[in-house]
Amino acid sequence: MAKIGSGSYDINKWLYGGYERDVITCFYGGPGTGKTNFCLLAAVSQAKKGNKVIYIDTEGGFSSDRTKQLINNGNGKGLDSDGVLRNILILRATNFKEQKKAFDDLLKNLKKEVSLIVVDGMTMLYRLELGDARDKEKGEIQKVNSELARQMRVLAEIARKQGIPVLVTNQVYSWDGKIGMVGGDILKYWSKCLIELENDKGRRFAYLRKHRSLGEKSLGFQIWNGGVRKRGWL
Q1: Which residue in 10, 162, 168, 214 could disulfide with 119, CB within 3.0 to 4.6 Å?
Q2: Distance (Å, rounded) from C-alpha 97 to C-alpha 168?
Q3: Structure pTM?
């Protein structure tokens, strides 16, 4: 199969089957737009099938309670939540050096049974490292950018050569009234699918900005106990 399910019927329908296996899909948007929920939902969908998921968490957004809620579709106890959770390998990082190590560990732990890789917070630690680099000697900024590019290249090669889908989340910044992605062209180049998420006073929207076979379009959605679903007003 060329795609994996998102864990949401409405998102699958919107993307004509889900996320492509051989590319990086990047979710970007401000805080509270739903980036982590999209990632958790896809991770749970694969873990429930008995597949292994590697989840690199750099922002502390992974919640076992929320994950168990998604495992049981927002209801009370049902499935063996702990058993499903064991299929999700969590790699945590608190600085950019640890993020680099997490990627090195990723390559060591990558096995055939892994069906999804998630990097929740691709650029938060990069952004902090970049700020520190500006106060050091020349060339440090280039080193930081080169490391981010290396990590994205690693993910892209894994997706393309091994058919393992990769989901990453990214932060945004505002400049002169325009919204830009942190990491700029590095993230845009290596991500073949770009999905912008927006939270407008509780009204959430997903915008498909880049895709190999689909045109730009939007979806109004809501986050509920069981996951993500389409809103009726769009």
Answers
A1: 168
A2: 18
A3: 0.93
- pLDDT above 90 (res 155): yes
Cβ–Cβ under 8 Å, residues 87 and 44: no
pLDDT tens for each residue of 21-77 = 999 999 999 999 999 999 999 999 999 999 999 999 999 999 999 999 999 886 656
pLDDT digits (tens, 9 = 90+) for 158-203: 999 999 999 999 999 888 878 889 998 999 999 999 999 999 999 9
Check residue 176 and give left, alpha or beta (phi > 0: left; psi -120 to 50: alpha).
Answer: left
pLDDT band at 91 (very low <50, low <70, confident <90, very high): very high
CA distance 79 to 82: 9
Q: Which tokens sit at 46?
A: 């694969």
